[in-house]
Amino acid sequence: MLLTTLAIRRAALDSLPPTTSPALLSAQEAKEKLREIVEGFFFRGLKGEDGKHIRRLLVKSPPGLGKTREAIDCAIRYQAEQQGKDWLSLPIAEHNEAGVNAQTSIFVPRHQLAEELRAVIEGAFQERGEVIRVPILRGRENGGEEGKAPCRRWREARELARKGLPIYTNLCERRADSEALQCPYFAGCEYIQTRQAAYAAPFVILVHSHLGLEWGATAAERASWASDDPADQEDDSAERRRYFNPKQANLIICDEDPTGSLVEQGKLSPEDIRELGTDGLGDKILAGLVDPGGLLTYLRDQGVTADRLREAAEGARTAEKRRGQITSPDAGDGDLGQAAQSSPRLVRLSPVLTRLADELDCGRPGASYSLLVNDEGLIAQGRRPWVFDNQRLLLLDGTANPAILRQFVPQLQDLPELRVSRNARLIQVRHLTFYRHSLVEPVPAAGEKGGMWRPTARLAAVAEFIERVARECRTLVVTNKRVRCALTGETANGRLPVSAPYAGADIAHFGNLRGTNEFKHHEVVIVLGRELPSPRDAERLAKAIWYDTKQSIRCIKEDKRGQVDYPKRRHAYTMRDGSQQSVEVKVHPDPRVQAVVEQVREAEMVQAIDRLRLIHSPRRKTVYILCNIPLGIPVDELVTWRQLAGDGRLTRALEACEENGWDALPLAAKELSRLLPELWRTRKAAEDWARKNPLASVVSIIRVWGVLNTYRPPGQTRWSKALVRHGADPRAALAAVLGVAAEGVQVREVVGSDPPAKGSTVAKVRASLTDNPQPQPQ
User: Fold this and answer.
1) What percent of the chain is helix, strand and coil (3-state, nearest 5)?
2) FRET label pair with 55: which of 137, 372, 468, 734, CA 20 to 30 Å apart?
3) What is the DSSP annotation of 125-172?
4) Is pLDDT of 229 > 80?
5) Using CA atoms, how far apart are residues 81 and 101, in angstroms rounded to an integer?
6) d(CA 171, CA 730)
7) Contact (CB, 8 A) for 209 and 177
8) How far apart are CA 343 and CA 338, in angstroms?
9) Buried b / exposed e across 396-411, counting CB within 10 Å, b at 16+?
10) Per-residue pLDDT, 758
11) CA-CA distances (angstroms) from residue 742 to 153, 303, 597, 621, 727?
């Protein structure tokens, strides 16, 4: 049914003519509608089409409308209202084991937003004459590199987590032979104290990564029944039972789409699988993975049932619990650290087997989606379990896909999206996608695996555009991570801050922006390019989300060259003036995979645009989309890149160098007209161009693409300028272009023309260009 619904929507989209601008709500109208929905959820028992109360609701509207603040305000009022009731008049669903009625857990994407929400909640209580402290649950290693980790042994905790080993019973506390073994720092541990304080707090804030954890039983559940869950058997101490567990809360507010935290993917080895069971189950699984008919069909043919797999999963879970205990919490720091370092990785096969059982139950033949083999090896993947079955949920996001979220959160309902007018002028390039490889390319000596990338001529031109815009107003640029690093000099490996400076602008990257309000005072945003997963990566992620689907996921077949690419279909722009415009866009034929693609591509572009908080902005801001993907947002102007960039002959000359394999561009007029007559017909035309476009005006293009050198070929008495590609040998590059022997070319680098070092400012770069006298070329 889900697949059919998605397919109908896609078919309808593909058959529609280019759309005109839809009726959009004003900021005030949308705010009132939002308040009506959220208050209905909290106070009036909002009902769905089936007449039943909605317990799990997705509210979808553009970022910046005020969804989070509205939900927090209602939650505070609702919690206060419930606290005034006696237990007889309180709904059963609002009772809490800690005696806190309507206790609320709030999940956010980043700690910065957690701090902002804590200030809002504490301020609201203070206005009512109450003083509370809202706990924020941080991971043990959070802030460790800055000396602010809540756990003294955060490095050991990180190593245990990296190995897949249980942390609490190895690091914090464990009961053995009726004796409590504790970490030496347990009594004053900030991490433990926060968990204890959160137990009876009316509001608790966590980050999205906590959603995918196996929380085990709550304190009340442990006291009332004997649990078989290994997570519940880790410890039975009284103190342990007083720690906060988000499953004890009555309400959950989740800000932003948490899908990324709810998908599990990991690598296995054949040896991990081979050890399963005593009846050759592991060998059967390995044989099925390479069988032409697929693993699921093979297991059925071999008589392996879902019950057999679940039985094996229980045995694996018991063994994992035993192997996971590698040390004692009361061990010294050195001993504990050594144990964590030397211990092998704990491979958890119990969830792998459970997901395989689910796949056998679904009845789909062929290959498994939760256990598969590809170029990277043996991959285990799937959805993390949603453990909050008894809580009401309010999920807030501007770009979430309800069909995807319902795979994780059963019975999640959604209302029509609130489409709101943005106070912005939107200008979009109509003929280029600015895909990653058009902006950066691997350095030949290193290749893609070497991690060294250099800007192309197109990125050099974009850099000049960024600098020109940033000179006039505060500018945010959002692009691919690798492109960001090519501009800023940062290293793409590892975690980056939200943004870094470049040419007077702030440069951020897709996938690292949700939940931040840092750019609400910026006046311009430039969205440069888009993220697009490869077809195989998108298909694999869709298989992880829909691993137990009855209907197979359709995969794109290889072409005659063995390549896999998306087919294209026309998608319509939403034009503010009602004109009809459309463009060809890469689209996956399976609607479930396409839903994944759009969450990576379109959704991240919209999230970037709305970092400027355009809905309530008192002044009209400007949005440049340097990518032709339609986003469903009213466009004011569709333009070409040349219209935005102006005279692009230098950029086209550098593109010609790349196409011809030249690593140098002589800038003397006679050489420009000789090498590129399609751009400069005569020497005089090149001289006129040079006079109207002095090098200082295109410094961004020059510094991004290469290094400015002066050279003197054989027989020439005066020095001329040339631009030499980063990483190229100047003498050899110029000799190849000029058609002369390398030993006859004299070269010297122009002082101050090298790329800015990491951390250098734009002011320093400009100073290096102006403070050093340059030789006068011909």
Assistant:
1) 40, 15, 40
2) 137
3) HHHTT------B---TTTTGGGT--SSTTHHHHHHHHHTT--SIIIII
4) no
5) 9
6) 57
7) no
8) 8
9) bbbbbbbbbbbbbbee
10) 41
11) 60, 73, 49, 52, 17
360 near 281, Cβ under 8 Å? no
Selection from 102, 91, 53, 62 nearest residue 411 by Cα: 53
Query: What gap in Å lies between CA 574 and CA 580, rounded to an integer?
Result: 8
Q: What is the pLDDT of residue 289?
A: 95
CA dihedral 151, 154, 156, 159 (to 10 degrees): 140
Give burial (CB, 10 Å; 0-12/13-18/19+) of 631: buried
Whether residue 523 contacts residue 424, with contact meaning beta carbons closer than 8 Å, is answered with no
Please identify which residue in the block is written with the tokens 């020497």.
Answer: 683
Distance of alpha carbon 191 from alpha carbon 173, whole angstroms: 13
pLDDT digits (tens, 9 = 90+) for 646-657: 778 888 899 899
Question: From CA 285, how far away is CA 297, in angstroms rounded?
Answer: 11
The tokens describing 441, both together, are: 């390319």
Q: Does residue 273 carry a pLDDT above 80?
A: yes
Residue with the bigger pLDDT between 376 and 597: it is: 597
**Consecutive H or E run containing 324:** helix 306-324
Question: Residue 300 and residue 306: Cα distance in Å, rounded?
Answer: 9
Token pair, residue 177, equals 């032979």
pLDDT in tens, 69-82: 999 999 999 888 87
Round to whole Å and give the CA distance between 204 and 253: 10
34-66 confidence digits (pLDDT tens): 999 999 999 888 888 888 889 999 999 998 899
Q: Ramachandran region of residue 533, left (φ > 0), alpha (ψ -120 to 50) or beta?
A: beta
